Amino acid sequence: MTTMTRRNLLRLGALAGAGAVTAGCATPGTTSVNAEPTVPAAPAGETITLTYWAWLKDLQKVCDVWNAQNPHIQVQASWIQGGNAGGYQKLYSALAAGGGPDLGQVELRSLPEFMLVNGLVDLRRYGVDDYADRYNEALWQQVSYVDGVYGIPQDSGPMALYYRPDLLDAVGAAPPQTWAQWADVARAVRDTGAHLDCFNYADASWFAAMAQQAGARWLRVEDDSWVIALADETTLEVARFFDAAIDEGLLTTAYGQFSTPWFAAAANNDIAGLISASWGDALLQGVSGASGLWRVAPMPRWETGYASSFLGGSSAAVMANSRHPKEAMEFAVWMTTSPEGINAMIEHCGIGWSPASDYIGSAREGGSEFFGGQPYNTEVFEPAAAPAAQNLEWSWWPITQQSFNILADGFRAKAAGGTLVDAVVAAQGTIVRTFRNKGLTIREETA
């Protein structure tokens, strides 16, 4: 596995030298945090206040647990809109003005974009490696694929199959263990007028998770260049599978998971299952009259690849203008690894899967009435989140969201006679041009 360094990330441009590339991509008003001296910890006995901007509900209640135990390091939470819905723009604007919070919620896939504008602190300079063994290895790699560590994993979304056992029993089917079996079950379910799942053309992140599970690695760093392999054979096989499933009517494209029409269809017994992340359990409980009807099983597997994948996930990132980065890091570690921090995050914020290597949260250890008493978190999601079940070669890149938008634009063409395969191939070319337009060096993988 090639290790991406911050030096590589900032040098991968057509301009001469790392500094020129960084300057070309930087938000006005920011400077390279690597060039700044390490900020000393606050003197003993001095009271400081940290700020955390996040879209988590009731985050202040979590901070208050910390505040009661740490009178000299107080944390104030401020709510912002979800990342691309406005939260990121607010963070970027604050960075450019030389201000902003000590901590910001940044999705794992968005960390490289903030790194390119020098928006994040390298936590390795503050001893973060001392805490690495507290975290799930797969998630730690999502924040430390550079020569530093640029975020504290906050939550994630290991994936599994949610299903209605009564609707599967009605067609003599069991939860599918492979994607080939999934297609067989989907055909049987379709004969009853229901669907086993849906495919949302507008959201390419779900498709990316399927490719990730199959073993794809869309972008990587090699020497001083980005290498793209989005249209590799692994991804094309996944695209061919879902092309066929959509063409056969096994997946509905009329709506996306957890949309208003999806909830109506699920309540009407027209949805027999879905493959989604661990955080989908709370959303499923919004289906009218569904208590006790749903169960959870492991995600179907491809012929190659891994047992599961991740969909979503955030970090608590220390922002470049923080005056107290060490204390901010320590709070973030407490919040995401201590039992009291994790329990408070689940209770008050409804976070996704805990990033800790050895604690999922007390609320998730027992059975669930909604899921018929099944202890699905320990039975299904805990093994799905294990590093051995995940594609550790997958990493994000500086224009991830833009790449997803490009891919989604191509997917929409399928409704007019296009194919997902064509969309993947075309997206790779568009992403290459987008990289180069931003002054970043990229080449397509050769066989």
From TrEMBL:
Keywords: Cell membrane, Lipoprotein, Membrane, Palmitate, Signal. InterPro entries: Bact_solute-bd_prot1, SBP, TAT_signal. PROSITE patterns: PROKAR_LIPOPROTEIN, TAT. Residues 1-23 form the signal peptide. The keyword Lipoprotein applies. The keyword Lipoprotein applies. This is Extracellular solute-binding protein. It comes from Propioniciclava soli.
